[in-house]
Amino acid sequence: MTASAWVVAAAALCLLAVPAAADINSSEVVAPAATAWWTPNASENLAFQYQLGAKFSTKKNYIKGIQVYFVDGFDTDASVVADMLSKTPKIYPVCYFSAGTWEDWRADSSRFPTAAIGQALDDWPGEKWLDIRSAEVRNIMKARIQMCKDKGFVAIDPDNVDVYTQKSGFTLTAADQIDFNKFLATTGHSLGLAVGLKNDVGQMTDLIDFFDFAVNESCMDYNECDTYAPAKAAGKPVWNMQYKSRSFKAACKCQDAFGMKTIYKALVLKSKPLTQCTAALKKGTCKPLKKSG
Ligand SMILES: *[C@@H]1O[C@H](CO)[C@@H](O)[C@H](O)[C@H]1NC(C)=O
Ligand SMILES: *[C@@H]1O[C@H](CO)[C@@H](O)[C@H](O)[C@H]1NC(C)=O
Predict the structure, then answer these.
(1) What is the pLDDT of residue 22?
(2) Ligand 1 site, residue 198, Cβ cutoff 6 A
(3) pLDDT averaged over consecutive 10-residue blocks of the chain (293 residues)?
(4) Residue 43 C-alpha to ligand 1 middle, in angstroms?
(5) Residue with CA closest to ligand 1 atom 6
(6) Of the candidates 147, 140, 157, which has an alpha carbon nearest to the alpha carbon of residue 131?
(7) CA pair distance 158, 104, nearest whole angstrom
(8) pLDDT score at 31
């Protein structure tokens, strides 16, 4: 290219640039919806930790080599998230919150309309199912997702998104659930956050395209880890916790077959115990777990 051709080309670029700049609407004060977010790929094989039962401390709980940390969105301060983000190799902090239940101990619990609070959960004191159709519930969830964003998280893990399958106290349809779960995914993405699908395995096929990864607990105990085949096919990571040594070991043998990354944890979900599927544990045939007694 000659010097004069460069001038012409540069001038053409300027002309192209001007209308774009003029397009900006000065009255627009809201940040534009994000078009990019973290899209983890199962082939990256990222190791993860799931620590909800004890406040995460980078000093005490950071484990070199583990790159994905699920921590409580309310209990983890922005300074801790910033600390996590400063690590090498890169850490991806994921913000946990319950989207389908009301928890009486949360800072925003008084915001929920009484009419949207349903039946109590069997095993979790202080927790009740929510009417996921409620506009106010959605506004609160939106605020929670914004809180995750403001704290610096790169992803969210909205829990309990299978209310329609539960004795919630509300008559909810499968379509209500799909609508709510898509709302969570869209809201997260609009803020530039990756969004995980936890529970709601029954709607996996309908929903996986809208989510960036999946989270499971104990699927090996039910020999149902293969429900995640659609996630595997899409190259999206499935992060799974097993709480029994026997099913953990069986899940390790199936890790590659199911495109799943499994860890051993105790139900309290503190920093320890934490066991990864090592190469030794992965050896052997993937087969259904025999029901014990
Ligand atoms: C995990 O998968 C099992 C088996 O499909 C299912 O029953 C359970 O609800 C799932 N749990 C989560 C947290 O997704
Ligand atoms: C994930 O990575 C693999 C291997 O690099 C690539 O073939 C695949 O297209 C990726 N999938 C997605 C969903 O990005």
Answers:
(1) 42
(2) yes
(3) 46 45 51 90 97 96 96 98 97 98 98 98 96 98 98 98 98 98 98 97 97 97 94 97 97 95 97 97 94 65
(4) 22
(5) 219
(6) 140
(7) 17
(8) 74
Q: What is the rounded CA–CA span in Å between residue 286 and residue 264?
A: 17
CA of 116 to the centre of ligand 2 (A): 41
Q: Which among 189, 214, 194 has a CA at the least distance from the CA of 204?
A: 214
